[in-house]
């Protein structure tokens, strides 16, 4: 469980464990974030896929 100092560090999505974590629980190489809310962190993978698709289809990068 995260202590008070870690809770101030926002929410993260852990790629290794496929979980949302409050504070910097897992190493930086395994996490996305920080996100302002738990819900935002839970959507990290979905949002990353959306952004990648937007960038792949951006005519400025063609």
UniProtKB/TrEMBL annotation:
Name this protein carries in UniProt: SPOR domain-containing protein
Organism: Streptacidiphilus cavernicola
Lineage: Bacteria, Bacillati, Actinomycetota, Actinomycetes, Kitasatosporales
């Amino acid at each position: 469980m995260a202590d008070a100092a870690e809770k101030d560090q926002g929410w993260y999505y852990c790629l290794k464990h496929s979980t949302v974590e409050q504070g910097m629980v897992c190493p930086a190489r395994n996490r996305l974030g920080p996100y302002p809310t738990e819900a935002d962190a839970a959507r990290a993978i979905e949002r990353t896929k959306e952004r990648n698709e937007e960038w792949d289809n951006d005519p400025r990068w063609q």
